[in-house]
Amino acid sequence: MRFNKPELNSLASNPATRFDKEGLLIITDRQEGFLWRSSEVRVERWCKLRGNLLFYLKDKDPKSAVAGLLVLENCRARIQNEERDSEGYVFDLDFKDSPSERFITRSSAERLAWVQCIEHASSEKLNALIRQLKEQIVSQSRQPSSGASSSMGNHIDLGMPLEQQMQEQLQLHGQPAEELSVPVPTEVVAPFEELDLSELPICETALSCDTLPLDTLGRPPNPQVVCSLLPTAGEDCVWREHARTELQERTRTPQFLCTMRFQRSAGLSASTRLRFSVFDVRERMTLTAVPLGHAEVALGVIQDTSRLRLPLTSPRGECGFITLASWSPDAAVEPGQSGNGPPRSSTQLFDGSAGAGGATTSSRRAHRRTQSLPPKLGVRLFVPQQCGLQRVCSNPRLRTYRLHSSLGADISVQETLLESRLCCQLPQQLLSIWIQREKELLQEISGMGELSGEWRWRQMNLLEEHLRLLKDYSQAKQNIQQLARDGVSFKRSSAKADESLEFLPVNLHVQRMWAQNDTLQRRGLLDVVTVGAFTRHDPKGRKCGGLIKLLQESKSWKLEQSNACKVQAANDAVQATKQLRKEIVELMSQLLQLASRRSSMDMMPLCNQMVARTRTLLNLWEPSIVEEAVAFIERHRIIEEPENVLMEPMSPFRKITQQLTALELKSPELEDFATPVVAPPDLWPRGQPPLMRSNSWHPSNSSPSSSLDIRAIDSLQHVVKCYNDHLRSLEQGRQPGRQADDEEQEEATYQSLPVAWQTQSEVSAGTQIPPSDNPADLSVLQLIDLDEIGRQAQRQRHHQPPAGFLDTKLMSSSPSANYYRPTEEPEPLDLTQLNIEASVMCLVSKLKFFCGRCDSPAIRLRHPKAPIKREGFAVAPQQAPDVIAASAASGKQAPNLALDLKPQSVDSDGITTTGSVAVKKGNKFTDGLDLSMTTDWAAELRPSMRKLRHAMDRLLKTARLMHSVQRLQQDMRCNRLQASIMYRRDVCFSQALTALVSSLMLRLWGSELDMGYLVMLRDLGPLAYFEGLLTLYGNEADMWSDMCIAIEDLSAVSFQLVRAQGEVAQTPTPRITGSRQALEVQLPVPEHSLPGNGNSISFKITPVFFNIGINEKASFAETLGQTKEQHRSNWDNYLRLSQYFGRYRKLGLGSVDTGESLQSLLGFMEQQLRANVSKNVKILHLAEDACRLMDGLRFTSCKSAKDRTGMAVTLEQCRVLVREFQLPAKHVPYALSTMRSEGTRMDNVLKNIGKRKYAFNRTQVSFLPAMYRPPVGSYGKAQT
């Protein structure tokens, strides 16, 4: 009786209480004796049974004090002996988790009566009776049971918990849904999922009550109103809940903030009957309530009357009044027009007086405010303009409020919770890019060929690591695709530790608040993206220190390894080479189009850009590093003798690398890596396979499957691991003298590969394969030279589209253009650079000739160098002068690499040729050309462009080879550490980028764009403020570390606005391109939003991250001194925010008042950062205000974005209402409590854990700052 002791005493001793059973019972009491000895004593007491509470008094006097009670739940009454005992008739109460209790009566009939009453006293029996009555109602109405028809029943009259809450409790207690007569599924929330935010409601109603009755002790009630509706005849026969208000404490005249909306899409009409039931909530934790009374009215009456006061009726008579203040759209709006969206203005207004008479309007306006009647409500209906909000968001939850400002006006507030449609789409695009990267690295490693000694084991280690990453990325993408097909658009917080969905952000939602103060003529939006911490959750709860600690360890490893810096530099150079090659090819494609139109005026600017990029490309590489890599390959590669190619079987390494062609060299979901029109090459060719047209290749039954099979990757990874373990054992000398067994083991290892992957060339080794016209009969294909495609294009008309060698999609996916085959010899870097220089010189000379500058000197791409001695390279006299090839001749004069050409020089390229050639004046690249006779400019430019493209391909191949050698020479432990860090970083970055792009799309589509915002995007880029409520204690310290790195990585992403036209405008989806180091996101925007000059807008964001822990663990962290890193991070982000404000003010963005306010805010923030204050949440509030003034993007995060995030978001909403809409400060606690208990954040809790309870206990609540504490009854034991 320690819990609610006064209430229980009052219930047991009140003479007006009607008990189910009273009488004398002999109870066995246990009394403590001397030296901890206990004894049992029989005591006759007066007992009272009320519901499931059995009170026993101190003695047998009915008016004596209460001694205690028993709660009759999870118990069973048992009669062991029907006969009379020595003391009387005995029966026992057996409890599930407690000792049994023994009772004795004086007669057998009295015992039987007590046992029957006790059996029917539990709530389980009561629920069974309710279900039986429901079944009888359904059978009488001759209609099938449905969630809509029986979701209310008669619970309003009986004062029991509502059906939805009962279902949630039964689910959490583990009761199967089959035992319920009402199915639990999604029909309860289906109306919310189909809600159209642009639909005009029939009417909106605010409620208030007066003269409510007192309870038996003379205390005011805790009122709450539930609105139920009775559909039209022929549909349902029972009441079902529609909406409810918040709970007010100890008042007879409540004025509720929550309003109720009635919409036609919910099946409502003017004839729909409504019942407003008023409850007195006696206990907030369990929501135990008793009914006070109810009033019934038709919806049409409410719609036609702006103010309606109805008496409440109950079995005890009248018990007060309820007042309905309603406002509706113009009566001329037809039902068929209800779904039309609001006009182009930001707010649509409807005067509530349109449907009421003149007398009603005058009386309403003349009415004065009193304490017994509700305050004056606005007479206009405000509907916010949603623009294209539901094109980027889905599944809205809506709550509306009416608040009162300090000036006597009304504040209309609409709170909306939505899911982002991009939650599953963006991680798939990122995974496609990372899958493509792993395939590239696999091709690089296999392109080195088979190495000898220790290097073969290192090579297999790298292959195993990349196959493991490829399998993990592919499996994650497949899991997300399955989730998207199921229609799920968010990841529940209860599944945050699920490794199969770790690339998805946890509980990603959009919280939008729209507010309107009609008196101030002010309206505004507040959009906050709520998302769980960007981290990789460990299912076992193990700590790793987070990304900051892991990167510091990796940095220390790199300092110990002298080769680590070279690996990073080589990787950066490879990415730069790929990008420059793509840009140069795109420029050449544009030049071909201009040449086909003979547009000489526009060709020279493109020519200058191409020369600048080529110059950068030639200066990327240090020749000494490339020569070291080539020497390493020549020294350690195993060369296969030509005469033994067809006789000896393939080694295990060659068999494994041969199967890599089955893992696809492309990612079909990305346009950047479109399906190639060339066949995958045979890495280890044997014999002369037939030629085949590249554009007619299709996968056949005998060729590897074109679809990426995760099981195939897993099988190949297992094979590589087995072979790798075998090589490691050989290196460590664990199997001496067993070479023959080793060879057998190598062969057995390969036999575990899938049979379908075996190449038919092994079966037909030594046999010449005849040419075949049927692609399905070919197992080994050879790439056709792209020069042939170019020659065919030359023979066609001049307005033919550019040839295949300028197709950047084909270039990015073609293996022959990106990697060396294992049997190919790498080309010397000097020779590749000379080919690029000569091709560019020839191309530029021809362009200048076409532009009328035939006397211009040749260009210089590199700085002059001293002549070096090189043997074995010369150019034959009959060869074209714009390319250099190797020949078997030796002992010739070394070429001059300076390329410092003069106008009168004949050998302008500085290459020594065999024989004596007469010296001629002029530019040799344009000799013989007659501008008047040249009709096809594109045909003259295409050969030089093709040779330049092929020379750049060879440069990229050499770069990839050098990168592989550098990685091979690195410590294997460093490679494994970097792989694990990269995977964790990718997981965190995927979550962060998804949240960021969702916020950007919300800003671009969910509200109107003005020119000032577009100017800010173009000149500065938006500010993205991430607010963290994590604690630097335990696992959350790792989450904070991961978030810091993930948010920092967002600053490197480029964004570009593109016009959305046609179908894209209906379902706008961003597109991610680029590589891990250089990502670009293309954001579709409404076509009318971008300026008409055709210039695209590109920008980057400026992210800032402020974190303050607020729970009980934050107190522990501050006591232990573990918040130093948090303070340092907050200070660094403050400096970044100040620098952003400096650029913001320098560009003249914002008004003068805004600049002064920001200046004072940042000054006050600096003071708060310097102050040593525990849980200084003022830092977060100042950052929120600064972000809102600069029109930035807002994010709020905690561990799961559910409990602490809900407290923070609702507090920010109230702060905005106070600062911008004149909400009185004294009304903030009540408004804050209402939003937390009945607002959309509680809906978010229900969506995540299936229960309307924040996951706080009483101790945790006491540690929270006062303004972050949830209201009583809204928290309790729940799954976090």
Can you characterise this structure?
With 1280 residues, the chain is of the alpha+beta class. Among the domains are: 5-134, PH-domain like, CATH 2.30.29.30; 203-329, Immunoglobulin-like (Sandwich). The protein is built from 35 helices and 28 strands. The chain has a seven-stranded antiparallel beta sheet with strand order 4-3-2-1-7-6-5, sandwiched between helices. β2 (38-50) and β3 (53-57) form a beta hairpin. α12 (546-560) crosses α24 (972-1005) and α29 packs antiparallel against α30 (1152-1170). The longest helix is centred in the C-terminal third of the chain and has 34 residues, at 972-1005. It is globular. Residues 694-707 have a biased composition (Low complexity). Pathway: Signal transduction; phosphatidylinositol signaling pathway.
Total DSSP helices:
35
Give the helix/strand class: alpha+beta
Question: Major sheet: size, sense and barrel closure?
Answer: 7 strands, antiparallel
Give the CATH superfamily of one domain: Pleckstrin-homology domain (PH domain)/Phosphotyrosine-binding domain (PTB)
User: Strands of the largest sheet, in order across it?
Assistant: 4-3-2-1-7-6-5
What proportion of the residues is helical, as a percent range?
25-40%
Overall pLDDT score: 76
Cα-atom Rg, whole angstroms? 40 Å
What is the CATH topology of one domain? PH-domain like
Shape: globular
Give the CATH level 1 class of one domain: Mainly Beta
- Number of strand elements: 28
Report the β-strand fraction as a percent range.
15-25%
- The name of the CATH architecture of one domain is Roll
Enumerate the spans where pLDDT stays under 50 for 5 or more consecutive residues.
143-193, 331-379, 665-708, 734-802, 865-922
N/C terminus separation: 30 Å
Pathway: Signal transduction; phosphatidylinositol signaling pathway
Keywords: Coiled coil, Hydrolase, Lipid metabolism
InterPro entries: C2_dom (IPR000008), C2_domain_sf (IPR035892), INPP4 (IPR039034), PH-like_dom_sf (IPR011993), PH_domain (IPR001849)
Protein name: phosphatidylinositol-3,4-bisphosphate 4-phosphatase
